[in-house]
Amino acid sequence: MRGPHNIWRLVRTGATLERTGAMRAILDAVDAPAPLRAGARVLGWPFKWLGDEGDPAQPPVVRALTALGPAYIKFGQILSTRPDVVGDDMARELRILQDKLPPFPLSVARHQIEAELGQPVDQIYAELSEPVAAASIAQVHKSRLRDSLEPVAVKVLRPGIERAFRKDIDAFYLAAGLIEILSPSSRRLHPREVVQHFEQTVLGELDLRLESAAASEYAANTADDAGFQLPQVKWNLSGRRVMTLGWAEGVPLGDNDALDAAGHDRVALSERVLQLFLNHALRDGFFHGDMHQGNLKVAPNGDIIALDFGIMGHIDEYTRRVYAEILYGFIRRDYKRVAEVHFEAGYVPADRDVDEFARALRAVGEPIFGMDATRISMGKLLSYLFEVTERFGMETRTELILLQRTMVVVEGVARSLNPKMNIWTVARPVVEDYIRQSIGPRAVAKDIAKTVRVLARFGPRTPGLVESALIRQAKPAPAEKQNLGTLRAIWLILGIMIGSFGGLLLAAGSPVLFQ
């Protein structure tokens, strides 16, 4: 339930950060200026006693986020992939949040499995281990199937997780409302819509049936991707709160020492993980939305294995083309074209100056090229980009939030493997290939073919549509409206004729449009 009572949740958040020492650690990590430090101290200290103490054995920030709940843990998981923003030490600490959280008892997991699958655990699995990984929403057990002895992973939701997330999300809605009231300029960022998008994403992650379906679709899309594999879902042993899938044996992608010991090429892995993500986002429009190190392994043969499909992103074809053109423009350092694409897509209000916007984008993009990635401050870059978007009145695109967030996460994962990796150099071949496939002459032919297919569906309805249009024209109407209606009727009839002709081409298997 959303309401003023959530003020307590927000106060407790600040108090917990102060009591655990996380507030100071965060301010130190981002090198906050003195006024901000003083303000945080003044606002946080009086309420310190209201905060949760957390587990004293954990580092301060991990301690605070774990005490605050699953939504905050998700935020920490993202920061764990950004050593260039929070520093190497804190990034290493935050990786604990990926899959090393305190588990719930095996007895509780067995009870949930039996309740969900309707059978005793011992009749389904030959064995069920203690938790091998525990994250913010679920934990995983290693097992073997009773009938085939095949090794499998059994994922079980945390008890009460739905209610815990509901509390966090309610507080976020209140915070978004307060931000809009106290800072009217922030409304262009649509804080409420951002929270709503986060809510929809999380609620989808809390139903493991949806995750099973996403894993199945993802596997079908990527079946031919070299160097990439996914575990197979066991549909008959999966439900809303339980998911069974094949066991993935490999080295965690975040363990550089283990990767080196196994003889894996970390530079090649860093490039592959980024290129795989771009391929899935641009080629398929369906991508893994939670690609942190805890959800990635490296198989003995060097393949990257993806796990945890609760958060998946979808982008329509038009948005993919816009995104690709923006990336391609940055890669070619054609900032005028990048600016024009923003205007054409409606991302920037039409009354702004395109040349001025292009110059602002140049100031964002130029520092990237010809530099060692270790010299680029992503925090400062993002800060400047935010200033640019504010100055030109760009509004938050809620449909791109997950894509943007995942891009940041994947870049962080890649750079943890190879700190000198340059995102633009690695992304270039993938983006160029997509441009050739989706924006060139072949793409135009495909678009025409799709249009003809749609028009062809109206073929059987042609007589009725024409008759209805003519009857409407026969009714008395002002001359101007009647003329306009006549033109519309003519265009409708022409469209139907074209659709019928297209249907004939399709029926005849014409090679003209599909070569």
From TrEMBL:
Q: Does the keyword Nucleotide-binding apply?
A: yes
* SUPFAM superfamilies the record matches: Protein kinase-like (PK-like)
Q: Does the keyword Transferase apply?
A: yes
Q: Which InterPro entries match?
A: ABC1_dom, Kinase-like_dom_sf, UbiB, UbiB_bact, UbiB_kinase
- Output the GO biological process annotations, alphabetical, semicolon-separated: ubiquinone biosynthetic process
The record's comment on protein family reads: Belongs to the protein kinase superfamily. ADCK protein kinase family.
* Name by which UniProt lists this protein: 2-octaprenylphenol hydroxylase
Q: What organism is this sequence from?
A: Citreimonas salinaria
